[in-house]
Design goal:
This protein has one domain. 19% of the residues lie in helices and 18% in strands. The protein has two helices and four strands; from the N terminus they run βββαβα. The protein has a four-stranded mixed beta sheet with strand order 3-1-2-4. Bound molecules: zinc ion (ZN). Zinc ion binds next to loops.
C-alpha cells in the first residue's frame, strides 16, 4: 500500500537502510513490516528505479519482490 506521508511520498520502492532491503509497496506483505521501519531509515527510489537501489547496494525483500522481477527491473531500467 502506497503511503502519502513523508518520507514515503507515494513512492513504490522503499528501502530500509537498517536491513539494506528494498520493498515494493504495491505488493506489500505483512512480513515486510513497513510500519515498523524507523522513518529515518527509509530511503525511497523514484518510480521503477530499482537499478538505483542495486547501485546503492540494496537487496530485495524476499516477500514482496521476487528475484525474477528484481533482475528484470535492474536490467531494463
Ligand atoms: Zn517487502
Amino acid at each position: 500500500m502506497l503511503r502519502k506521508y513523508g518520507p514515503f511520498n507515494l513512492e513504490r520502492f522503499v528501502g530500509d537502510t537498517n536491513t539494506m532491503k528494498v520493498h515494493d509497496l504495491n505488493n506489500e506483505k505483512n512480513e515486510c513490516g513497513i510500519d515498523f521501519i524507523d522513518l529515518e531509515s527509509i530511503k525511497t527510489f523514484a518510480r521503477d528505479r530499482l537499478k538505483t537501489a542495486e547501485d546503492n547496494h540494496f537487496g530485495h525483500c524476499p516477500h514482496c519482490i521476487s528475484a525474477e522481477s528484481y533482475e528484470k527491473h535492474i536490467n531494463y531500467n
